[in-house]
Design goal:
The chain is built from 13 helices and 15 strands. The chain has helices spanning about 1-10, 10-30, 45-60, 70-80, 95-105, 140-145, 155-160, 180-195, 215-225, 260-270, 310-325, 325-335, 345-355, and strands at about 35-40, 65-70, 85-90, 110-125, 135, 170-175, 210-215, 230-235, 245-250, 255, 270, 280-285, 295-305, 305-310, 360. Helix 3 (about 45-60) links the parallel strand 1 (about 35-40) and strand 2 (about 65-70). The radius of gyration is 21 Å and the shape is elongated.
């Protein structure tokens, strides 16, 4: 993805985007002051950031925090040009961005903190199925979404669900019509966990055409709710009570999605190759055999600097990230009526706290 971003930057569309980003960065800088804390980035974090900002305003009414959900790429660019004090990104920074980050952070480093973990549910519409969760292995799930398995009572599905009353009806897979981190994470899971059953590389766009689709998670959820026989992947917060959800095969068991099971994948995953005490980036264990882990998740990172120009800026950013990573802050966005996020574990919270405590001002 880093190479693609570098190529896009050289295109005419990339240059137009760069101009827009620069203008927005100047606008954010123009409205910022010692009492302002502008941020920008991933739309996946928008609802959660709204909740976090509301929580911070109760504690720090003097601090004007904002978040512009312009997308991960634009958010990173705004942050690196100094137009925001923090950013949200669904992907870690690449090597070029990290080098730029040292200049932007006054000789310090960029923090990358996995503060937003969103389970991606595989939901289906089969009224009267008679099972709490349909059980599907990664390979079966891949064959369903490629269209190789065409009917709900296929022997492969029936073998994994002996107690389910599976109907003899067509399976209608549903995917996102727009580019999304949800699609990238779902296809990454299939690529790593399903083996040869999923012959496609991870991608923000669905890898083949001619399928049922919906725009945004809400669009996919709507297609699922109105079409019997459908199955699709969607942010867990969008799953209504009338839809069933898949328990995915992990090792010798089948694990339904839950906040706790989704958060556990972070703790069983290895650090990314260039991770550090400040960059808590992850190589997610999509093909884990660990019990009780739900591996289909989106992890979105919060970016910040380890050094800021003024002590007040450093204190303000430290206060925001401390609240976002706290048990109270994580539970606030875990509420189903807010963002349905999976709270980070105490182990990860301790690592985040250690990194956040290292934020300081140039003169410190």
């Amino acid at each position: 993805m880093a190479d693609e971003r570098n190529v896009n930057w050289l295109t005419r569309a990339g240059r137009r985007r760069a101009g827009l980003v620069a203008g927005l960065a100047l606008a954010l800088l123009g409205c910022s002051s010692s009492g302002s804390l502008p941020g920008a980035g991933a739309s996946s974090q928008e609802v959660a950031m709204t909740a976090w900002i509301a929580g911070m305003s109760e504690r720090r009414p003097d601090l004007n925090i904002s978040y512009d959900a312009v997308g991960s790429g634009a958010g990173r660019e705004i942050f690196l040009t100094g137009g925001s004090y923090f950013a949200g990104s669904d992907t870690p920074m690449d090597a070029t961005e990290l080098r730029q980050g040292r200049e932007r952070c006054f000789g310090g480093e960029v923090l990358e903190l996995p503060l937003f973990i969103s389970p991606i549910a595989v939901a289906y519409n089969l009224p009267g199925l008679g099972a709490d969760h349909l059980r599907l292995s990664p390979q079966t799930l891949a064959r369903v979404f490629t269209g190789e398995i065409e009917r709900w009572n296929d022997p492969e599905i029936a073998e994994q669900n002996p107690d389910a009353n599976l109907p003899d009806r067509e399976i209608v897979p549903v995917n996102r019509s727009d580019e999304s981190g949800t699609t990238e994470n779902f296809t990454e899971y299939l690529h790593e966990a399903a083996g040869e059953a999923w012959p496609h590389e991870p991608s923000e766009s669905w890898p083949f055409s001619g399928t049922q689709s919906g725009a945004q998670s809400s669009g996919v959820a709507q297609v699922l709710q109105t079409g019997e026989g459908t199955i699709g992947y969607v942010d867990a917060a969008q799953v209504s009570e009338d839809l069933g959800t898949v328990a995915v095969g992990v090792g010798e068991e089948y694990v339904p999605y839950s906040a706790e099971a989704a958060a556990r994948v972070v703790d069983v995953s290895e650090p990314a190759e260039d991770a550090s005490d400040l960059r808590l980036t992850l190589d997610l264990a999509r093909d884990t055999d660990e019990a009780g882990v739900y591996p289909i998740v989106l992890v979105s990172y919060t970016l910040a600097c380890s050094r800021y120009e003024s002590r007040q800026d450093a204190d303000n950013v430290r206060a925001l990230l401390t609240y976002m990573s706290s048990a109270e802050g994580q539970q606030r966005v875990a509420r189903p009526d807010v963002a349905g996020a999976a709270p980070i574990s105490e182990t990860m919270r301790e690592r985040v706290r250690t990194a956040v405590d290292r934020i300081q001002a140039v003169q410190d």
